[in-house]
Design brief:
Helices cover about 25% and strands about 35% of the residues. By secondary structure, it is of the alpha/beta class. A nine-stranded mixed sheet has the order 4-1-5-6-13-12-11-8-9, with helices on both faces. The protein has a two-stranded antiparallel sheet with strand order 2-3.
């Protein structure tokens, strides 16, 4: 079976000592792809914000919008603005071509914001905490100060925190998924992570590719 590529976005960091902006990705992501059998058919393709996503699009079977940086709506600064604009282009491409997308933390916030979800400041979302799916409870890790308080159609909630904020969701018809916790920091994917990630990767496996000029 041929290897498929998943594009993955990075954190933008201003390094004052060297007067440069860096595109950074935690090595946890590479470790996740290497250890989890779900990811065996895939390799991460780290994108640069200096290269239009249209250049990457024909070569990828899905996209992971990773964590790091606040949305400009929460903390307006040039790096957040730059990342917002690039990821917004990815989201629009995904909607137009049914390209699978998994948003993690900031990525989930961005997907939610695109479809009209509300973001609010939150407490108690740093480190391990419980999320619920009906009567089932799972322990996940989170590292965010803003939470999704409401979703708008066509997004459907999948899991919620004890403060009733949204922790995971999916689009009702498109292969778009959001999770507010960090799967790359789990030593072993919990059952809920495995279910959502498995659904995303199944969509990536079935994606036929983007073969048109963007």
């Amino acid at each position: 079976m041929a290897t498929k590529f998943l594009a993955i976005t990075t954190r933008l960091v201003a390094h004052d000592a060297y007067d440069e902006t860096r595109e950074c990705l935690a090595s946890d992501w590479g470790a996740l792809f290497e250890r989890e059998a779900l990811f065996a058919p895939f390799l991460p393709l780290v994108v640069s914000y200096e290269i239009p996503f249209a250049r990457y699009a024909p070569f990828v079977s899905g996209v992971i919008l990773s964590g790091g940086n606040d949305l400009a709506a929460c903390n307006d600064n040039p790096l957040s603005q730059k990342r917002d604009a690039y990821e917004q282009d990815i989201i629009k491409t995904a909607i137009a071509h049914e390209l699978p997308v998994l948003g993690i933390c900031r990525g989930a916030q961005h997907l939610g914001q695109h479809f009209g979800a509300s973001l609010i400041p939150c407490v108690g979302h740093i480190g391990e905490h419980k999320v619920s799916v009906g009567a089932q409870h799972f322990v996940v890790n989170s590292f965010h100060n803003y939470a999704l308080s409401t979703l708008a159609a066509p997004l459907v909630p999948l899991a919620s925190a004890q403060d009733c904020t949204i922790e995971a969701f999916a689009h009702s018809t498109l292969p778009l998924f959001g999770m507010m916790w960090h799967i790359e920091r789990e030593e072993k994917l919990c059952d809920l992570s495995r279910e959502i990630v498995g659904n995303f990767l199944q969509k990536c496996q079935g994606f036929s590719g983007i073969c048109v000029d963007l």
